[in-house]
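Assess this:
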Amino acid sequence: MELMVVVVILSWLVWPFLQGVQRVQFEAKRELTETRLSGVKQALLDFVRVNAFLPCPDGNGDGREDRDGMDQCEFTHGSVPYLDVFLPPLQLKDAFGGNFIYAVDQGVQNQVSLHDADNAASYFARNAAPRFNLQTPPNALQSAENGFVICEAAESGCSDIEAKLHSVSAVLLAVNRRGIGSSMVNCLSQSLWEEENCDGDRYLVFGVYSKDLFDDQLMVISSYEIKSELSAVWSIH
């Protein structure tokens, strides 16, 4: 009986320590994921500087962007085309082993929008690049109708009214531990917030980490960053 009492007391003492170690481990993994996301984002912007367009997602896992014969992106959601942006495959994974999801403006599957400088899809036009210019939406007067809408985690999910960011051209999403095996168009989830991030629409959520509810990490690529990257080496007006 005395031995059992000692074991119980030791369990009470050790449990908070183990919980603290687990929190530290998870936080270290989130920091590693954040570092990798930042590196991938910079690689995509470097690609813009050299090629004057953003690549399409890799939808079949071969490391290359996927386009059809009319220059349109075959997929709006997929992986980062690591061979095109010169990154090792490991850099394209979160710290829990899941692949980053790369998603782009849905207008990239419309040839007219893709080749129209008045449409945000033109950031992804490969032929005769650059198609876009400094006035290409979104700007002070015009939004990008097919761009992503980003909300903070809230009980009601995400809507245009609640959004913190509008008209985002591309996003990188790490689904982390709670999303292993899922994708942006195939939910295995979980919480309302994480389901919002994998239902395939333009509405996405970022928020404070919660072990039981939300561990996604999101990084955006805005049109302003694209224009800024390109204006340093190309003449756009």
